[in-house]
Write a structure and sequence with these properties.
Shape: globular
Radius of gyration: 17 Å
Structural class: alpha+beta
Largest sheet: 6 strands, antiparallel
Oligomer: single chain
Order of helices and strands: HEEHEEEEHEE
Length: about 160
């Protein structure tokens, strides 16, 4: 359990996350775990544009509809989140880890990119789990968690993660 938490914290810190949550559950002697992190980054908007469009965000994502040799695949879509509107999403199974002596493993993943109102920034909600056998169920869970995302008003403007 401590290793899962340390790994999640390390990944969140490396990605500049402003929030990281971890779920770990023992079910019939097997472990089920998942992480969610929220980060924000500056988007290089075009001339005269201060807020990135969802279309621009989707263009930056690459889809792999057929699994690669490693089993990785990605689907890109536009989703409508209840509290923030349209967002770009990439979901699938992606390679994670690996190193000199370690083979990369697949993880179920979902990354949702949300334009920050009034700013050239993007909020990113990333969900991951090593429990690849239940990818479809995890994607439904990740969608439900991401649907709770909202910006918090701070006076007349929005306060966004920086």
């Amino acid at each position: 359990m401590a290793a899962v938490l340390r790994d999640a914290a390390r990944r969140a810190t490396a990605s500049g996350a402003v929030y990281c949550g971890v779920m770990a559950e023992a079910i019939d002697g097997a472990g089920l775990s998942a992480t969610v992190s929220v980060s924000s980054f500056r988007h290089d908007a075009g001339p005269g544009e201060s807020v990135p469009t969802v279309g621009e965000l989707v263009v930056g994502l690459q889809e792999e509809s057929l699994p690669s040799l490693s089993g990785a695949w990605r689907k890109v879509q536009i989703v409508d989140l209840p509290a923030v509107g349209l967002a770009a999403r990439m979901l699938g199974a992606s390679a994670s880890g690996g190193g000199l002596d370690i083979e990369p493993s697949l993880v179920a993943s979902m990354r949702t990119l949300i334009p920050v109102p009034g700013a050239p920034r993007v909020a990113q909600v990333e969900c991951r789990s090593p429990n690849i056998a239940v990818t479809d169920a995890l994607h439904r869970l990740f969608d439900a968690v991401t649907a709770t995302f909202r910006f918090v008003p701070d006076g007349p403007d929005f306060r966004a993660p920086v």
